[in-house]
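[step 3/7] fold_predict: job queued, chain A
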Amino acid sequence: MKKRIYLHLFLVGLVCILVTALVCAFASWQTTKRQTLYDLQQAAQLMAVDMDHHADSYRLLRRSAHSAPDLRFTWIDRDGTVLYDSYEPAENLPNHKDRPEVAAAIGEGQGSDARSSKTLQEVTLYAAQKLDNGTILRVARTQTELFRPLEQLLPWWIISLLFLIAICQFTVRRLTQGLLDPLEQATRYLSQIGQGDTTEEEKQLFHTSYPELLPFLATIDRQGRQLSKSLHELEQERNTMKRITDNLKEGVILLDDQMRIQWINAWGLQLLQQEESLSPFRQKLLGRFLMPLLPKGARLSTDRTRENKAITWNMKLRRRQYQLTLRPLEPPQERATRMLIIIDITEAREREQLRRDFTANVTHELKTPLTSISGFAELMEAGMYQKKEDIAHFGQLIRQEAKRLLEMINSIIFLAKIEEVPSGSLQEAVPLGGLIRSVIEFMEPYCKDKKVTIHCQLIEDKVRGSSSMLREMAMNLIDNGVKYNRSGGHVYVTMQRDMAQHQVVLTVRDTGIGIPEDVQERVFERFYRVDESRSKKSGGSGLGLSIVKHIVEQHRGTIEMISRVNEGTTFVIRLPEA
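[step 4/7] structure written:
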């Protein structure tokens, strides 16, 4: 803008200088022309008087032509015949009666004219005067054209022109700067008023320098502050909504009528992305069609996507289950007319499957001892025994099955209680070494019966948790090591401290039958038993290791199992220090 204004003003000034120079030159030439005609008329009048009083007119004319060589004298008779000419022989000249200046002199006593010569680029000025005897005296002078007089003055004229151009350039620059200074200062002022960077001194200086802009600036200032406040509020709302949507555990995608992505939150972005970073991938997704980004089995047909009602379907992606719900937006938001909500239902499905499995396992496990108890009771009720000793035997079997049933119910109740205890409440400092010693002492008679030896290497470090739960954990681990061991076998219980991780490491290793590799992933499932017949014979319910795993997880620890068939099993448990 500044260059354009400067260029336009400079061109206008330059044209004005050139036009003024030409007008002045033309006016000077016209003035010189009029002055020359006047001088010629005076000279003709004087010569006419001299010729009227001089006896020899020819001699007077020759003497005058000799003394004034720049003048041309012509003496013309009444009929237009040239009697004398100082430049050409009279007999060679045509009749001059029709010349304007001669005709005017014959009729009025004097006349004048100016005629140009295109070939010589000259102008000849004529002044004619009528003598007393009726003849005509004509005096002429040749004058150059308009640009001829300027040739001599050309150097000075160029110098003057350059000087005027320099003045014009300086003036135009100052004028341009003076025109734009208020706008530039107003721009700086307005760019700062909305941000609170304008000082009172700057405001006062601007108001003093340009009072004409005060109404305009006051309006812009007020609107700028309102706009800044509105933008700040919108930015806060946008950031709040972004934080809310990005922290949702559901994917939210806004789509247009063609199922092109208009907006997507962070969770939906992580769901659809492959390995790209979030920010560039978000920009790549906007405007793309959604369906090609979904697995083939989860893509809807065009007819389904055009339905103006909520649609729900499922998809499987990266070993997880998702529920997708597509519903229309009421009212539509700009180009976004539909909203797709993606919910991860993997855990819900897994919990549902666990509930079904748990119900089936509980039903099956409770049915077996109840069936035995019911059968023995019917035998006793029907009197189907031969000796009184049979009654005692049936009673013993009923008591064993009832005890097994009671232990199973207690284990289920205990497992449910473990899941309900918040992990933040387990803050007791438990001496794990002393707790394990008490468990081993309690199990000593059982170990002697099984002919299994327990070896201990314990430390006195404490762990954070619940003493009752940790006792149950140790009881189950050591009981399994003894129960599924060979006669004459060994169980090794050791404790170590991990200084780097601030953990206590408990290791329980036995020399028993071991667990096949293909079923090791299932040993922590509820009611799962590796050997059904042996587990039932030993009274196992399949809940011991499940209880151990839940206790370890509640204490924010980890459990690892290593087992080889006919070599034994090792459990490594890491618990946080107190």
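[step 5/7] annotate
The first helix runs from residue 2 to 53.
Residues 250 and 343 are 5 Å apart (CA to CA).
exit 0
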